[in-house]
Amino acid sequence: MKKNILKFLSVLFCVAFFLTGCATVSDVYNKDGSSIYYDDVKYFQGQVVQVGDYIYYGNGYTDASGEDFDYNTAANTGYLSRLNVSNSFTYDDETEEDAKINTSPIGIEKVNDKLIGYQNQEMFALGNYIYFTSANTHKTSNLENDYTQVSLFRIKFNGDGFQEFGTFRNDEKSIRTVQKGSDNNYYYIIYAPSGDEEKYNLYSIKIGDSIGDTVTLAEDVKSVAICDETSTQKNIIYSVTSENTEIATDAVKSVDFATGEVTNLDPGVASSTISFVGRVGDIVFYSYTLSGITEVYYKDIVNSDKYFNPTRENKFYNATSISNIQAAGKGYVFISTTSSSVMYKTLDNSFDPIALLTSEDYSDLLFIDGDYVYFSNDTTIGRINIINKINDENAQVETLVTMTSIISGQCGYTGDYIYFYAQIENTESGDSSSEESEADANYYMYRTDKQGNYQLVGQTNK
After folding, report:
1. Helix (H) or strand (E) holding 18
2. What's the predicted TM-score (pTM) here?
3. Beta carbons of 217 and 260 less than 8 angstroms apart
């Protein structure tokens, strides 16, 4: 009888753990022994999160857009992992000459078995939670999988408190970002397809110690310029088709995502269109078409009127559109969509726009740190010094890492290390088609310092 009671209590205990979420790893503490809690978002470019001495990351990577994609198979390598990076890594075989680039370090821990390593990942830390995205696993009404949708999750640093709090449609124009609102709380902002062709909706979810409801901020949106951490105006500028049926144009509005208050800014000009292409602080960039001519302009939304009329004074770039606009020094780095070149330009036109990279140099911009623009392609990670390029048009790019195959554009950055996905290097032949390489053709997480010293941090199948 006593044995049966113990068995019953054991089952009850396990059920309680399942419902509340059992800790899979130890807690994380500050140096003084206090629990780590972040009042502000900690973001590291999306594919990793650093919490104390630990790096959290998707162990492996799988492209979720392929026809042969299988969620469970992908999750077998792409689960949420963590590794203590406060000391040098140790390996099972310390005598192996190239252990760091093809052998997993000892001490990798699984935190959660959801798929983390894939192309729509956005990870960050807030409070004592890691927030992350994963491919949607909810079946459609026809009992089919729709992995194009993205689900939002969070989990505590020790693996407790696992929670899903939203699923949204996704395409190449979708945006998911977290920003502090006018009420000093953080909001997950989602710009997602509405289901109708070329139409998008704006949503917000208040996050923190608890998760709020999903709020629809605007519908049938055509383009957006969302505030960032440097913006004083904590709002979203967006364009919609004018409600005035007598003229064909785009109107501009703004919404305070904390309160939901909408402000009409610009009713538009007949036969004109406006498309927002970026925002840095309170400077909004937009592509404007009038009388068949399209060029890119900018507007300081704090120190000017509310209208988005194009003028010679606020013209930014002679192109139909630009993308990936980021502040750098006294100017801005961006991609010209007409040439795919990475450009640098100031607002005061103190010098002509400078081409930093051509389409042959890079596939994806990663981030900007100081005077350097970091980029990647299918085999390399590199950087270019903006100042050097301004002073010398022949200044060359610096290659940090060259590998057989890299997942371009998917990275994390902690200030000391760049984290990226790549296939295991065969150190004997350097040929990924060898029998040894074919035995494990998956992509795993690596990291490199700024001198190009790279090492494997993912747990391989071997």
Report:
1. helix 2-20
2. 0.91
3. yes
Distance of CA 230 to the CA centre of its chain: 18
Quote the DSSP letter at residue 245: T
- What does each C-alpha distance from 177 to 30, 149, 163, 191 come to in angstroms? 27, 16, 18, 9
* Amino acid letter for position 176: R
CA dihedral (200, 201, 206, 210) positive or negative: negative
At 23, phi and psi to the nearest 5? -70, 130
Write the pLDDT tens digit of every residue in 29-56: 999 999 999 999 999 999 999 999 999 9
Residue for token pair 């899903």: 164
Residue for token pair 């501009």: 252
Report the alpha-carbon distance of residue 196 to residue 242 in Å, rounded: 18
- DSSP assignment of 258-273 equals TT--EEEEE---TT-E
Of 326, 346, 344, nearest in space to 389 by CA: 344
Q: What amino acid is encoded at 319 in this protein?
A: A
Which stretch of DSSP H or E encloses residue 60?
A: strand 60-61
Distance CA 418, CA 416 (A): 7
Q: Which of 22, 27, 156 is nearest to 80 (CA)?
A: 156
* Tokens standing for residue 233: 């105006």
Q: What is the pLDDT of residues 148-197, one digit of tens each?
A: 899 999 999 999 999 999 999 999 999 999 999 999 999 999 999 998 77
Taking only Cα atoms into account, the Rg of the chain, rounded to an integer number of angstroms, comes to: 24
Mean pLDDT of 235-248: 90
| Count of other CB atoms within 10 angstroms of residue 46 | 21
User: In the chain, what are the domain boundaries?
Assistant: 1-170
What residues contact residue 372 under an 8 Å CB cut-off, 6+ apart? Answer: 383, 384, 385, 386
Question: Which two structure tokens, joined as six digits, stand for 174?
Answer: 């979708």
Under 8 Å between Cβ of 187 and 177: no
3-state secondary structure of 435: helix
Residue 361's CB is within 10 A of a number of other CB atoms, namely: 17
Contact 343, 351 (CB under 8 A): no
> Tens digit of pLDDT for each residue in 60-95?
999 998 888 999 999 999 999 999 999 999 988 665
CA distances from 14 to 18, 21, 26, 348 (A): 6, 10, 19, 65
